[in-house]
Amino acid sequence: MKKVIIIGAGPAGLTAANELLKDKEYEVIVLEETNEIGGISRTVKYNGNRMDIGGHRFFSKDERILDYWKEIMPIQGKDAYDDKKLGKQKKLQEGGPDPEKEDNVMLIRNRVSRIFYLKKFFDYPISMKKETFTNMGFSRTIKSGFSYLKSIVIKKKEDSLENFYINRFGKVLYSMFFEKYTEKVWGRHPSKISADWGAQRVKGVSIKAVIKDMFTKKFGKADNKNVETSLIEEFWYPKLGPGQLWEKLATIVEEKGGTILKNHKVTNINIKDNQIISVECEVDGQIKQIDGDIFISSMPLKDLVSGMQGQEIPEEVLKIAEGLPYRDFMTVGLLVNKLKIKNETNIKTLSNIVPDCWIYVQESDVKLGRIQIFNNWSPYLVENPEDTVWIGLEYFANENDEYWNMSDKEFIDFAINELESIGIIEKDDVLDAHREKVKKAYPAYFDTYSQIDELIKYIDTYSNLYCIGRNGQHRYNNMDHSMLTAIEAVNNIKNNKQSRENIWNVNTENEYHEKKETNVEK
Questions:
Q1: What crossing angle do the helices spanning 479-494 and 63-72 adopt, rounded to 10°?
Q2: Dist CA 476 CA 197 (whole Å)
Q3: Residue 183 is part of which domain span?
Q4: pLDDT tens-place string over residues 326-348
Q5: In a shared domain, residues 159 and 265
């Protein structure tokens, strides 16, 4: 049997382990740095409530991914239709388990995400509804229209994320809805960020796509397989948060004979003759060496290269890896009696709170980026969903900056004051709070990222090393993109395919997605 060492027990690592164990030819060991399963897709449990770190919609245009999820966790059935705890929803598919009676179930959820700007709500992505133009005002609407028409005629060279957005929305809408928010997320102006980010995350979204989607829904048949991923209206979601599915998959891996070692932080990668021969892990303050035949890595590329030892690494490769940037992330969970903002939509919700999964905060006078309303992702994330609202305040930071280094109490107070200042809550309504920090949550597209192809070329010289997942490829992949990289890597291993091109190509080339139908959403 060949011994395969997998670094990381997130979606990519666990998928790779499960795929390998479908055959009896591999001994599989998964090394996880933390005591948790799922990586950034884990579910945090706190005082009877659960937090989704970053929000994870289970949606895919790839049947392999849909089948994967359904096999691990069945979709809810019609019995949930009148369930008081879920609130009134449209009729659900026939059959399936009742989530009130069973935990191992995936809910069908309606996607509502809006932008909070000028103390008003705008659809996300921007829609052509009357309310949009009313909220914008006559002058902004006229300017936006002419600006968009100009962007159709005069195209900018897409050498930055700024120009990518302007080409699709015009400069006025870009300035209103993309510029400041993007700078919040990345800590850099969009003019300094590669257009590759837009090509990956919002490649099909534009005013033209929004109009097409609007007419399709009004006069045609809705079809998630053909709609742009940012325009989908329905997704699946594990009853107890995304971590529930990955914890279940981890159990399946172990039942098949795989080994998952938690609290095993990989610090060094030992190499010889352009092959990985072993890794060294820090375990309870001690160093533990683990040998293997094949190595699959979802650890950050920066850490992978810096940890290589045993033969000389080219100086330019080390420099590129060291310079790869990341954006770190913090979420403050707030349990409140109520929200000040009212549900003025025609969507019915439990306790009549606003229906949003996410609220994108565009107000420039606060650092807050997004608000998650966990009640709307799944009421089962909240201990008392009928009488309390459990929200997540999302902040983007750099490790060891002034906000990162605040104590939990200092930062929670800061976040509460920001939320009160824009009229979302009253401070006196806060019942409980918790902060979570996530390092290297978002691989960033600036600094030495422009030279990443040179780094990839070098990495691929190691014949028994496969890089998968978001951090493993330094690519802002959704969790199901990460699963696809794992599936492609395992196929290469089983078929002794030397080229890694198919693994690196997941979620990069439109043509690839059209042929393989692998354009998927987080």
A1: 100
A2: 8
A3: 123-224
A4: 999 999 999 999 999 999 988 88
A5: no
